[in-house]
Amino acid sequence: MSGLCWGRAPHERQQPMAQTRPLGHVSSYFPYELPYLAPTAPAMAALSLPFFFFKIELGACQVAQQLSLHTLLWQPRVCCFRSWVQTYTPLVKPCCGLQNNFLARYVSLPNQNKIWTVTVSPELRDRTPLVMVHGFGGGVGLWILNMDSLSARRTLHTFDLLGFGRSSRPAFPRDPEGAEDEFVTSIETWRETMGIPSMILLGHSLGGFLATSYSIKYPERVKHLILVDPWGFPLRPTDPSEIRAPPTWVKAVASVLGRSNPLAVLRVAGPWGPGLVQRFRPDFKRKFADFFEDDTISEYIYHCNAQNPSGETAFKSMMESFGWARRPMLERIHLIRKDVPITMIYGANTWIDTSTGKKVKLQRPDSYVRDMEIEGASHHVYADQPHIFNAVVEEICDSVD
């Protein structure tokens, strides 16, 4: 079978490690740690060998994935559909169309957690790298419309936040401050492990909240802070008339918060989960239509959130009523060092409070703060208007070096 080769027994094989080859051919070897629902008995018998390899062609990049049987197949915790077999393809496919050289691998932290990381244009080392942090329920694949453009003249790093996507899913502290600190510490440990001295730090939604918290604690590592439709900044209004009406999917998520984690319904739905994503978020398929003709993005979002809700639980402890943070960032953003420039990018049609940008300016009168809105964009600015978004971010990056 093309693309399938067999590996040695565990005690005979070497430990997997990331390897970089000459430009145009970047490879990565990594342990695949995502859960899968157990197949039927005949399939189990057919896959009874201890170790095997999948080799997937990713354009200019090859990724050889070493899988053990127990990591490929798992017994469901919340789903009784034992005959359903999940595929790992949706979690790999979104990066397949990249034109620039890229390296995809797990970055192991000292505490044994692993952060799934994609580095684009690793050969461009003369400029400050751009680091992009995704929002709640997302992953590196959602930056697919931006990666090539934003890595044309500098290295770009993006990673799955701890507790999300393909990264490790440890237990987080249950208090909001502890959960936030766990996220921030994992980002700093990842930076140290990667050997990145300083960066242009961009965060979307929850990622914007965490990027701001990181900049408060480690300002010397941030050359420019870019906040894209950041979540968790304003204080919750006491007057309901001051609250922007959220989209339908936000209302649906909020309706289950009192009983479970925000995306629990996806895990309970089993094989119908991808259909739920498409039903509640049909806009995602439209946003990425120029890149994917099929349901890749909907399936990707589902598979990112069909696992142990580690980061999801942490997010729940940090928020109240989904749209608001228990520890609003507006109360703390003045703590960022004055010489750290901040740009805030909003979608003109977002449900996030865009007046936050002006309030940040008032709190930082002696610092560079720029706020702007992109017409025709909602919360996912980077996907709604990718060309405009990319041009704005490129301009910001060029102002750094």
Proportion of beta-strand residues: 15-25%
Which range best describes the helical content: under 10%, 10-25%, 25-40%, 40-55%, 55-70% or over 70%? Answer: 25-40%
Determine the structural class based on helices, strands and strand pairing: alpha/beta
| pLDDT averaged residue by residue | 75
Name the overall outline.
globular
Strand count, sense and barrel status of the largest sheet are: 8 strands, mixed
Rg computed from alpha carbons, rounded to a whole number of angstroms: 21 Å
Instruction: Work out the number of β strands.
Output: 14
End-to-end separation in angstroms reads 48 Å
Question: Which sequence of SSEs, written as H and E, runs from N to C?
Answer: EEHEEHEEEHEHEHEHHHHHHEEEHEHH
Q: So how many helices? A: 14
Residue ranges: pLDDT <50 for 5 or more in a row?
1-93
The side-by-side strand order for the widest beta sheet comes to 5-6-8-7-9-10-13-14
